[in-house]
Amino acid sequence: MADWDEIIDCEGLLCPPPLLRARNRLLSLSPGTVLCVRATDALAAIDLPHFCSEAGHAYLGTQTDGPVTLHLIRRR
User: Fold this and answer.
1) What is the CATH number of the domain that holds 12?
2) 49 in a domain, yes or no?
3) Is the pLDDT of residue 61 over 80?
């Protein structure tokens, strides 16, 4: 079973699009839902936690899937 409820694929995109796509998807999710952002841009590891801190979401950390990093975010 996956550690998340929803997933968005941002592979190959350079920030800020992964952050913007995550923000838009989170707006449509219920509180407590966990979103997985699949990203290859190393800056996502800086941008996504900062965004979560500012927006009040919980950044749950990362998992690795080959060259892709899975960023897990719980909707506030």
Assistant:
1) 3.30.110.40
2) yes
3) yes
41 token code pair: 């841009």
Give the Cα separation of 52 and 74 in Å (integer).
Answer: 9
CA distance 6 to 26: 10
Sheet holding 34-39, edge to edge: 6-10, 34-39, 68-74, 58-65
pTM of the model: 0.95
Domain with 39 in it: 6-74
Amino acid identity of 28?
A: S
Number of H helices, E strands in the chain: 2, 4
Q: Where are the alpha helices (DSSP H) in 1-76?
A: 17-27, 44-55
β-strand pairing of 68-74 with 6-10: unpaired
pLDDT value for 69: 98
